[in-house]
Structure formats: C-alpha cells, structure tokens
Amino acid sequence: MAMSFKLLKNISRVVTFDDSDSIFEKADILINDNEIVEIRKGIEPVEGYEVIDCTDLIALPGFVNTHHHLYQTLFRGIREVQEKPLFPWLVGLYDFWRHITPEAVYYGAMVGFSELLRTGCTTTMDHHYVFPVDKPKNLIDVQIRAASEIGIRFHATRGSMSLGRSGGGLPPDCVVQNEEDILLDSERLIGKYHDKNRFAMQRIALAPCSPFSVSRELLIQSRDLARKKGVMLHTHLAETKDEERFCIEKYGMRPVRLMESLGWIGPDVWFAHVIHINEDEIKVLKGSGIAHCPSSNMKLSSGICPTTDLVEAGVKVGIAVDGSASNDGSNMWEEVRRAYLLNHLRYGTDGLDAYQVLKLATRGGAEVLGRDDIGVLQRGRAADIVLFDLNDIAYSGCHDPLIGLVTCGNTSIVKMTMVNGRVVVKDGRLTTIDTEEMAKKAHEVASDIVKKERQLASEKIW
C-alpha cells in the first residue's frame, strides 16, 4: 500500500498531553496516513509530502466529547420547556421526541457533528435512547452513516428506556421498548459495527438511559451483554435530587450505591453528570469515568460536578456538551471554558488550571472512552489534531496561549480539524459536507416535528 504523508510545518506550539506533559515550540508534525510518526523541529519535506503551513498556529489533540444526545439539535429553544429543571423538562420534551424519525435522527446528527468538528472535537459519543413505538428502529445505524459521511470518530451507544409511566418510570409508554427487543438490537449493533482495532472510527457501547427510565433487570442484562462482548457501559447518574429521591424510594439506596450493587463500576463504565455524591461515593467511583456537562448542569439548575475531588480520587473525568436541548449547542471549545469557570466557582483558588482543563477535554475524554490511541499528540497515536489561530484582537495582551485558549476569544471556530489524518475542517468550514444546505434541510425537518406536536397539543390528542 502506498504511503501518504502530511507535514504540518512551523507550528508555533505543540501541546501533547503526553506522560511528560511535553510542549514543543516551533515544531513540525509528520503524519503517515492516519498516524503521527514524528514531532520535532526542522522536519524537511521530501517529494510526495503534502505540506500544510501552520505558522503562528497552536496544535492540540482533538477534543473528545464524552456525552451527547444528537437528535436534540432539532429541539432547541422550545418555549414550552424553558426555565424548568430536569424532570419537568423531560416530561415536556417527550411529547416532541415521540415524533422522531430516521430522517430527523440523520439531520440532527449532522448538525451536532458539524458544530463539534468546527469547535475542535474529533471524537464524540452519542447516547440515543428514544425509540418511538410506531417508528423504524434503525436509528443508531442512521447515526453511524452520518458520522462516516462527515468524517468524525464516533462511539455510538445503544441507549434504551424500558420503564414507562405505567411501570412507575418517567417517560411515556410510547417511547419505551421491551427488554428483549433492546438486548437483541444491542447485540446486532455490536456485531455489525463495533471495531476493536486501534484507530477505530466507530465503536458501540450499551447505555440504558437512567435509573428512572429502565428496570433493574435491564441494567443487569446490559452489563452482562457488554462484558460478554467487550464493550463499554454508560448511563446518566446522580444528576439531580429528584433522581436521588427516586432511587431511594424505589431501591432503598442512592444512585451510586445502586450502580455499585449492580456491578456497574469499573474501567469499562462511564457516567454522565455525577453531581449529587458524597465523599464515600467518590471513592467508590475510582477507576470509572465521568462525563462532566457544565452548560447542561447550569441551564437545568442541576448543580456543579465535583470535578477536582473526582480527579484527585482517581476517577477518570472528561468534558461533554450534553444534548443540545439542554445546552443549546455542540460547542466543545466553549464547553472547555465553562468547565474551567464552573470548577473555579466551586473550588476557588484550589480549582483546576487552564492546562488541566484542556487535558481533561483531550486525554481525559479519551481515557473515559477507554482509548489509548487518541487524546495525545505523540508518535504512534492517531492523527486527530486541531489547530487554533490566536492572532485575533481578542487574544491581544494575553501572555500565555494555553490560558488564552480557555479564557479569551470571541469565537470558538478553529482554524483546522484533522480526524484520523484527514482534514475535515479548514479555515472554519467543513470540507466534507455543504453546511448551508444541511442547516436548511435540518431546520425544515425540525420545524415539521414541532409543528405537528403543537397541533396535536392544541387538539388535546395523545
């Protein structure tokens, strides 16, 4: 096979997040196909190299988004659910989400992927758990197709809800599934799409939605299937006091202790949010992963994740945008800034510094997703590289570029995003799709769904 070399030349600063926290000044990065083969000063191009001038740019590993609900990009700014905490917010949105189709899932994914790539994210997961009873069930397949078309590294999770209102759960019965169907489709998706190889562009995880929307039995069965097949587990946990009360009333224990009792703890498990926990529960979570979702937690008034305490206790922590309906964007660069600010709001001068927060967003996210081939810039790692241009006036007067990346700036659009050795964003624009046409079509699909539900609501039809 012919080798394909790219040389990123004259990078102002290369921030690696390797074991030595190496930072290279005025350096070059040589890439062979999808792999970094060398980082140093003065790499001379030879015939056949594609040379990319990176003068005055800063290079970081791509951000890794550890929690999302891509379909929610079609449900932003819905007036009926604004200014509400999680449970009432969910109840209001289930009415809209019961109308989602494969087409909606496709365009929702494309919108979210576009935002992520343009703001420096090279790897994302998605937690899709809404499968309306009267719609096709191939929604995860549709997401994977969208990820392949746009060129993002994708960890799709087969989410699920099995505990409807008739069984004491929160969601309406029209968006939950029986457990046999969930497990059969989970096994199908693993067999068809999960790639265990190094530099894999797609992987599958199993993700029952939450303790208040699935049964104890489904959590156990999903755990067993995931460990049999060698895939990871994910769910929401300890997000709100309402969830805590639900778990105590139904199971006689708090959320973290419930997960511990079910064997849902360890390096193959990561949780979204994890806000309402105590010191002993933090110790239980050592070795597991956490997706910290600052914007969502602020908008829904859920609370503040104890990020510093978790990191110090040996819990793996990454940063995440969460679903767009509670954020209302998929802006990974901005989420890094909010993670930094929210950490300082909680911990003051004992909070994480800018470098540490950037490390959570890159290497930290990779570790949460169980990967040792991304999240770091060094020889033998995937060529997932983001280049930032800090020459705008908004960075003038800032004396440390890494601090500036987190605290300064009027935009979150990056100069270049490279995924697996392929340039997918150049000068802030996607190279793989027409974003203007995609945005137009996505908004049409979204408008049709919302219009349909509002018409039904006005006629009092369920």
From TrEMBL:
Residues 58-424 form the Amidohydrolase-related domain. InterPro entries: Amidohydro-rel, Metal-dep_hydrolase_composite, Metal_Hydrolase, MTA/SAH_deaminase. Keywords: Hydrolase, Metal-binding, Zinc. SUPFAM superfamilies: Composite domain of metallo-dependent hydrolases, Metallo-dependent hydrolases. The keyword Lyase does not apply. The keyword Metal-binding applies. It comes from the Bacteria. It holds the Pfam family Amidohydro_1. GO terms for molecular function: deaminase activity; hydrolase activity, acting on carbon-nitrogen (but not peptide) bonds, in cyclic amidines; metal ion binding. This is Cytosine/adenosine deaminase-related metal-dependent hydrolase. It comes from Fonticella tunisiensis.
